[in-house]
Write a structure and sequence with these properties.
The complex is a heterotrimer.
Chain A: E1 15-20, E2 23-24, E3 27-28, H1 30-46, E4 50-56, H2 63-68, E5 73-78, H3 87-101, E6 103-109, H4 112-125, E7 129-133, E8 135-138, E9 145-151, E10 156-161, E11 168-172, E12 189-193, E13 205-211, E14 224-228, H5 238-247, E15 251-254, H6 256-260, E16 281-285, H7 291-294, E17 302-306, E18 320-322, H8 326-343
Helix pairs in contact in A: 3-4, 5-8
Chain B: E1 2-6, E2 9-11, E3 17-19, E4 24-26, E5 32-34, H1 36-52, E6 55-61, H2 67-75, E7 80-84, H3 94-112, E8 117-121, H4 132-140, E9 144-155, E10 160-167, E11 170-177, E12 180-184, H5 196-204, E13 208-210, E14 230-235, E15 244-245, H6 250-261
Parallel strand pairs in B: 1-6, 1-8, 6-7, 7-13, 8-12, 9-12
Antiparallel strand pairs in B: 2-5, 3-4, 9-10, 10-11
Chain C: E1 4-11, H1 15-26, E2 31-34, E3 49-51, E4 68-80, E5 85-91, E6 102-105, H2 107-121, E7 124-126, E8 131-137, E9 140-146, E10 152-160, H3 167-171, E11 183-192, H4 195-202, E12 208-219, E13 222-230, E14 234-242, H5 243-248, H6 253-262, H7 267-270, E15 274-284, E16 295-296, E17 299-301, H8 317-337, H9 342-345, H10 347-354, H11 356-363, H12 367-373, H13 380-393, H14 400-414, H15 417-431
Parallel strand pairs in C: 1-2, 1-10, 2-7, 4-12, 10-17
Antiparallel strand pairs in C: 3-6, 4-5, 4-6, 8-9, 9-10, 11-14, 11-15, 12-13, 13-14, 16-17
Classes of the chains: A alpha/beta, B alpha/beta, C alpha/beta.
The complex binds flavin-adenine dinucleotide (FAD) (2 copies) and adenosine monophosphate.
One flavin-adenine dinucleotide (FAD) binds next to helix 6, helix 7 and helix 8 of chain A.
């Protein structure tokens, strides 16, 4: 655990906007670059720098990308013990960096890893953390960060700030901001820190990792989600859902009812107790649109719903309403789209 | 074995409606429920207790009505429930909440003995922050296992647990020493139908009260005033309108739909 | 497995079950109440007029501390058709004096409060548990089974108070399935309004309230009974119809309440209001003739489960409370002898006979049938009354005498003079 007495309590000493560069087995998470892009905008308003920070077994190879998306500095801590993400050593490493370099703002992707990490980091540093935000703004008067997030299952938005504690921390939902490289990337500075951890100081051991296509998936990564509910009628019929998703370069998901009926695994459930998604296109097939489902997808850009019931609540949030039997409709739609793909329309 | 579960009473978010004219939530008539994730946490705790022996204690921080949620945990088979309630906690953000619960839990350790397993829900459905559990674990300096979906092995003699959690790309199985702190997913277990004697016991049980009177608290870390985050404003998101119903013959509708979707078609290489 | 044993097991924490529980617990009896809802009142519905008098001997100083809304100072009766009504009202300063005759209440709050009185007195209430059937031994009821594991409860006596669709009464063979011609489905909305708006619209001040009872045809020509009651910051608007009629006229309850809300006499009263809750419930309207067997060995039935509803006056909760109390008193007497046979418990029926419960139910016993068989009473008369009033009150150069003649003619055409006389006689017989 870190030594809090070393933390500078004068908040005017804290500068720059930091982004946590999340990686798994050396592969960066897309949200990190989305956040760097956003951080550039915030930094230009605030008149400060954009800084990236990463912890891992080896992360220096990420530098090129990090600079391409606008970081001016890249703090890294590399060590064998960071090969796999584990809460405690990652927390302690990040806290070391924060205490030493005093960022004013610290942004983390609201991924499984990011949410696990930020809660413990913020508590260890005794600062505020705004979770799962969808909006970031600098107050022109005070320079504080305004962080906006949905609460109550998306029914209410709250703008939160953290005036007296540093860094101002938030996790940001993947896919909210677009990752845009800078026009003329500059070679930034890589600052490598050491940490005196050894494996025997870490009590948690990872025995097994299962990377599964079928298992966990971050639905937030996809621009297109094709989703099915009880109305799909059978597990087999989800073949159509997967086929359509594939055709659109997206992924597939479903309602809790689809999970309970064994059509899909829980890891693909959208909604209040599943994942929250906001793709560019969400296609809901045979889903009634119970409020617990809607809260997980109603911020999608475009929603298309296929349902036999004209009064299904899902239509109340849909841009296009299709009152048809999804099981009959999807094969035709897929056929049509395949034709378009082949012959260009 | 002693298991402590942190539970929260939340408004049933699915029944909260928005008054778009005033931009506020209509909370009237919205029932308060036990946060769904904790239902599974308690279920798991009771399952482990029945298998390995020991006891399950519950704590919640909230207004007096939150004892309803505690009762529900007792009727799932928990043994004792503590309500941590004090005016000075009003308006706590997650940092202040984890502080209060940390102190409350320390008091429970004093009263009920050392805790082996700590459970919290993955997140509370009203705020969805998922921070409180990690916050408490950090204050106790306990190993944290979030997104728990399975307890593979519990070894009380050698004091370790093997557990599986969800990750971004799949699952991982972790070995950690006891005491350990979990936050749990819904898929951890299937809720069982509690036997009647549990419910009778729950109705008769007294809820134990904790407050500034019997828990030593640093007031500088409590409540709205000492919460680092502040709410600047709250507003309702724009209401979505029902869009066009695509009409015509079946084939027409297929074509119209295909046209809407076409821009997303993967390019064939 | 440990045996769960209580002196008395009560099925259902509605007014009937809770009043029995309070009386028993106060007398030191070990009593358990099993309720299927999340909490008492969670799913219970009524229009919302609760009469004070029945609380005597159950809760002292009612309504002190109880969640009541407004005390009723004016009651209106309307005969309605699709677009008009004829009505009369009764407002009386006596209704504005304590103890108030009746109050509007919300059952979710009221039942919860009543349950608290029961637990404070020492009763045990277990929620979220369904009673599935009685436990029988040698033809006697010796307890109840619940839907939970290890869910059997043994008891000296069971009081069945599980409401209109009583599973227990059915599985005991005390009654057959509910008949669709003698059960009404009622739907109700709670419509939020400013307190001041309510006071202005209903011409009342402070805690005063108004009730409106409506009968007539509202929608597709089918007879409906409707009500509007004022609460503090809302009105309860509801409408009920015999299920058979709903089926016959292909009416869904939603359409029914929607057309009521659009009724020209109603819509201004609820204008600007926001629907806060939507509820639906059944009402047993069969009355006295539909009552099941009330006692058996080790068992008594109270409240709606025993069809103790006075449909004409929309009374039910007071009959439930009273019957629950009488069942409890019967148990206390039987316990002195240690005899819970049906012979011993039959004094429950005697007590009911002596009380207003049975005499009221008897008084109106012919009415449900009468109304069933003579649709015009609820359908054509209100329509004719409205037409007549319209004609009389429209100033259009036709003389009043001429109008009266026309009204008569119209009535005779529609129903016939002798029929009209017969109807009047029948009504007089059944309520007189
Ligand atoms: C605490 C709690 C948390 C919950 N969390 C979630 C959550 O995270 N996510 C979630 O999704 N749900 C959640 N739910 C459940 C939610 O309330 C609904 O039960 C669920 O979303 C319904 O799934 P569904 O739409 O697939 O099924 P249904 O509601 O049964 O709807 C099926 C729909 O399919 C239509 N249909 C039938 N046949 C066809 C056909 N051939 N073609 C087209 N349409 C057809 C029907 O008209 C109907 O609208 C939660 C519930 C609770 C209590
Ligand atoms: C729309 C409407 C308007 C009304 N208006 C009025 C009015 O203004 N004034 C008035 O006095 N009366 C009114 N009534 C009638 C009144 O509501 C009933 O007569 C009264 O509620 C009867 O009380 P009870 O205790 O017998 O039954 P209930 O109140 O129905 O209670 C029965 C209880 O048993 C529980 N239960 C049922 N089955 C089981 C089971 N198997 N296991 C465990 N628990 C079970 C139920 O959940 C319920 O809590 C109205 C009724 C309706 C529907
Ligand atoms: N007031 C509270 N009392 C007890 N436990 C809480 C409280 N708030 C949050 N928790 C626990 O922390 C988890 C995460 O909550 P949150 O950080 O609010 O999403 C919940 O699922 C609970 O297990």
């Amino acid at each position: 655990m870190i030594d809090l007495s070393k933390k500078d309590s004068d908040i005017s000493h804290y500068k720059d906007i930091w982004v946590f560069i999340e990686q798994t087995d050396g592969k960066p998470a897309a949200v990190s670059f989305e956040l760097l892009t956003k951080a550039r905008e915030l930094a230009s308003q605030r008149g400060c720098g954009v800084v990236a920070a990463a912890v891992g077994k080896s992360v220096s190879h990420l530098a090129a990308d990090v600079f391409k998306y606008g970081a001016e500095k890249f703090y890294i801590i590399e060590n064998e013990i960071f090969a796999n993400y584990r809460t405690e050593p990652y927390r302690d490493a990040i806290c070391e960096l924060v205490i030493k370099y005093k960022p004013e703002v610290f942004l983390v992707g609201a991924t499984t890893q990011g949410r696990d990490l930020s809660g413990t980091v913020a508590t260890a540093l005794r600062t505020g953390l705004t979770a799962d935000t969808t909006g970031q703004e600098i107050d022109p008067k005070t320079g504080y960060l305004w962080m906006t997030r949905p609460t109550f299952g998306g029914n209410l938005m709250a703008t939160i700030y953290c005036p007296k504690h540093r860094p101002q921390m938030s996790t940001v939902r993947p896919g909210v901001f677009k990752a845009v490289p800078v026009d003329d990337p500059k070679e930034g500075e890589i600052i490598s820190e050491k940490i005196n951890f050894t494996e025997d100081q870490i009590v948690k051991k990872i025995l097994k990792k299962v990377i599964s296509g079928e298992g966990a998936v971050n639905l937030g990564f996809y621009d297109v989600i094709v989703s099915g509910g009880k109305g799909m009628g059978s597990k087999e019929n989800f073949g159509m859902i997967k086929e359509l998703a594939d055709l659109l370069g997206g992924t597939w998901a479903g309602s809790r009812m689809a999970v309970q009926l064994g059509y899909i695994p829980q890891s693909r459930q959208v909604g209040q107790t599943g994942q929250t998604v906001h793709p560019k296109l969400y296609i809901a097939c045979g889903i009634s649109g119970a409020i617990q489902h809607l809260v997980g997808m109603q911020t999608s850009d475009t929603i298309i719903a296929i349902n036999t019931d004209r009064e299904a609540p899902v239509f109340d949030v849909s841009n296009y309403c299709i009152v048809e039997d999804a099981v009959k409709f999807l094969p035709k739609l897929i056929e049509k789209l395949k034709n378009m793909q082949k012959f260009g329309g | 074995m002693h298991i402590l579960v942190f539970v929260k009473q939340v408004p049933d978010a699915s029944q909260v409606r928005v008054n778009y004219e005033t931009g506020t939530l209509i909370r009237e008539g919205v029932p308060a429920i036990l946060n769904p994730f904790e239902e599974h946490a308690v279920e798991e705790a009771v399952r482990l207790k029945n298998e390995y022996g020991g006891k399950v204690t519950i704590i919640t921080m909230g207004p007096p009505q939150a004892s309803e949620a505690l009762k529900q945990c007792l009727s799932r088979g928990a043994d004792k429930a503590y309500l941590l309630s004090d005016r000075i906690f009003a308006g706590s953000d997650t940092l202040a909440t984890s502080y209060a619960l940390y102190e409350g839990a320390r008091k429970i350790v004093e009263l009920e003995g050392d805790v082996d397993l700590f459970f919290a829900g993955k997140q509370a459905i009203d705020g969805d922050t998922a921070q409180t559990g990690p916050g408490i674990a950090t204050r106790f300096n306990l190993p944290l296992i979030t997104y728990l979906i399975k307890i593979d092995e519990l070894n009380l003699e050698e004091k370790y647990v093997i557990a599986t959690r969800l990750t971004e790309f799949g699952q991982e199985t972790i070995k950690a020493p006891i005491p350990v702190f979990f936050t749990v997913e819904e898929s951890l277990n299937i809720l069982s139908h509690s036997p009647l004697p549990y419910l009778i016991k729950a109705e008769k049980a007294e809820i134990e009260l904790l407050s500034g009177k019997n828990v030593p608290l640093d007031k500088e870390q409590c409540g709205l005033k000492h919460s680092p985050t502040m709410v600047k404003k709250a507003f309702t998101p724009e209401k979505r309108q029902r869009g066009a119903t695509l009409s015509g013959t079946f084939d027409d509708v297929v074509s119209q739909t295909a046209d809407k979707i076409a821009p997303f078609l993967k390019k064939v290489s | 497995m440990s045996d769960i044993k209580y002196d008395v097991a009560i099925v259902g924490a509605g007014p009937a079950g809770l009043s029995a529980a309070i009386v028993l617990a106060k007398a030191g009896v070990n009593v358990i109440v099993i309720e299927r809802g999340r909490f008492p009142g969670a799913k219970n519905v009524m229009g919302g007029v609760f009469y004070t008098d029945c609380m005597k001997g159950i809760v002292e100083k009612f309504p002190n501390g109880a969640p009541v809304e407004r005390h009723i100072v004016e009651q209106r009766m309307w005969m309605i058709d699709d677009e008009s009504y004829v009505g009369f009202g009764h407002k009386n300063a006596k209704f504005d004096k304590e103890p108030y005759n009746c109050h509007t209440v919300f059952r979710a709050q009221f039942d919860k409060w009543l349950a608290k009185q029961a637990t404070d007195a020492g009763a045990l209430i277990v929620n979220q548990t369904v009673v599935t059937e009685p436990i029988m031994k040698d033809g006697k009821v010796v307890g109840i089974k619940t839907g939970r594991p290890e869910g059997d409860i043994k008891a000296n006596c069971v009081i069945v108070a599980d409401g209109v669709n009583s599973l227990m009464a059915k599985s005991l063979g005390f009654r057959t399935k509910l008949k669709k011609e003698s059960v009404a489905l009622a739907v109700k909305e709670i419509i939020g309004l400013d307190e001041k708006v309510i006071n202005d619209r209903f011409n009342v001040t402070g805690g005063q309230g108004v009730t409106i009872e409506m009968t007539g045809s509202l929608f597709k020509g089918a007879e409906a009974m409707a009500f509007l009651y004022t609460n503090k910051k809302s009105v309860s608007l509801g409408v009920g119809m015999i299920i058979e009629d709903m089926i016959e006229h292909k009416i869904n309850p939603n359409e029914l309440i929607e057309s009521l809300k659009k009724h020209p006499a109603i819509s201004p009263l609820i204008a600007g209001g926001e629907t806060k809750e939507y509820l639906a419930h059944m009402i047993p309207e069969g009355g006295y003739n539909d009552m099941p067997q009330l006692v058996g060995d080790g068992i008594m039935i109270a409240g709606d489960a025993a069809t103790m509803v006075n449909a004409v006056h929309r009374e039910g909760s007071n009959l439930a409370i009273t019957s629950g109390k009488l069942a409890a008193q019967t148990y206390l007497e039987a316990a002195e002898e240690g005899d819970f046979s049906s012979a011993s418990l039959s004094s429950y029926v005697d007590k009911l006979q002596e009380s207003f419960v049975m005499s009221d139910l008897k008084k109106y016993k012919a009415l449900p049938k009468l109304l069933q068989k003579n649709r015009q009473l609820l359908d054509k008369y209100p329509k004719l009354m409205n037409d007549a009033a319209f004609e009389l009150l429209t100033v259009d150069g036709v003389s009043k005498q001429e109008k009266q003649k026309h009204i008569w003619k119209n009535m005779k055409q529609q129903i016939g003079f002798t029929n009209m006389l017969k109807d009047l006689y029948k009504i007089w017989r059944s309520v007189g």
